[in-house]
Amino acid sequence: MKILIAFSDKEHLKDFFDMLECTEDTKSFTYKHIDLDFLETGYTHFETAYHMGIALHSKSYHLVLFAGLANSLNTSMRVGDLVNVIKDIPYLTGIQEENEFKDAYELTWLDRSKFPHQRGAFINMSNSYFNVFLPYMKTASLSCSSLEGTEEQVKLKIAQYPIHIETSNGIGFHYACLSKKLPFYQLRSIAKNLVLKNEDKELALKNLNLHLKDIIDLL
Prior knowledge:
Blueprint: E1 2-7, H1 14-20, E2 28-31, E3 34-40, H2 45-58, E4 63-72, E5 82-91, E6 94-96, E7 101-103, E8 122-123, H3 130-133, E9 137-144, H4 151-160, E10 165-167, H5 170-180, E11 184-193, E12 198-199, H6 201-218
Parallel strand pairs: 1-3, 1-4, 4-11, 5-9, 9-10
Antiparallel strand pairs: 2-3, 4-10, 5-8, 5-11, 6-7, 11-12
């Protein structure tokens, strides 16, 4: 089995690399029966789309994973929770008005009905190895060019979109995998809850690394 594991920053998976007994600079590693490739994408959507595009063009994979952090926009998602993003909504380009954000779909800059777009989002329909990922809450994510913001801006995001978390690069990952029609999962650990106004990056990273190791062991 060949798996690509992508991440924004190699420091996020330091404990995972230690558990596998390889270094953070390792590009490929064989663990049990699995050939693992590692890809550092950067934090932005354009870096992520670029690096993912190159990686997926140069090699074939049975499964592609993204392991990263996220902000929660939902009181039911606590800091340290690991979630499975099945729907990623672009909040990257548009027009910001006083009480509303008009996104690229509303402005018809993007066609919500044209592949890989679906119902105004990038939706992951993969069921590959689904039993392994079943324990993780399915969620919707907003990919933002500007995270967090003022309390009013956070409230606007929550009111306008049916979302649970926000990230800076989820769209780049989803777009690349959907375009290549590969099974994939975007896994996010909640580092900050913007509604409850609490955060714990250390706990989020600890849980991200532990769960990622559990997933690899179960595949």
